[in-house]
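User: Structure with manganese (III) ion, tokens only please.
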Amino acid sequence: MALRALAARKSLAGSGFQRILGARGLQTFSLPDLPYDYGALEPAISGEIMQLHHQKHHQAYITNYNKDLEQLDAAIAKGDASAVVKLQSAIKFNGGGHVNHSIFWNNLSPVNEVGGEPPHSALGWAIDQSFGSFDALITKMNAEGAGLQGSGWVWLALDKELKKVVVETTANQDPLVTKGASLVPLLGIDVWEHAYYLQYKNVRPDYLKNIWKVINWKYACQEYEKESA
Ligand code: MN3
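Assistant:
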């Protein structure tokens, strides 16, 4: 009977997130489809990397997140406050991994569709205001991404309080909101080794240099316009 709820699969409007209702009526999360083929970002990012990154890495965050949420539900049902607290770091890691990758896939697009053109838009103007130029933004994000110790993300974000675009980094799978409640992600770049190692080995700066060829500026512009309205 409970499995009938699986049919209640639905998409959150425009966000790329999908939710299904699990056996106990809990919301569980499922892997969103990529908006392009695995090989579509070559030569900037190989199809092998994209397939593993999506099917294995992102899926693992989702699988573990769903398990964490099930345990959370059980801990709450038992009134076990200490078990609830104990789950928080796993929820941040696995849930953050799902949130971050769901944004990341939308931040990329096939080179022949978008290319590395700077945005001629309200976002382009905001970038000039904050960083001086589009090239200065790229230099800054590449430097911060290359300099990030261990695993994490480098972000172009809208700070809704300061009403300007900023560059931030987050460690591991911390979602951007952990850096500030007023921050909205426009463009996130995954600098975990799993995002580039098969193709770029240990040379993270080369990965960062090439990823700009497949950035979906249209998506970042749309998010900026929606969030700054
Ligand atoms: Mn990743």
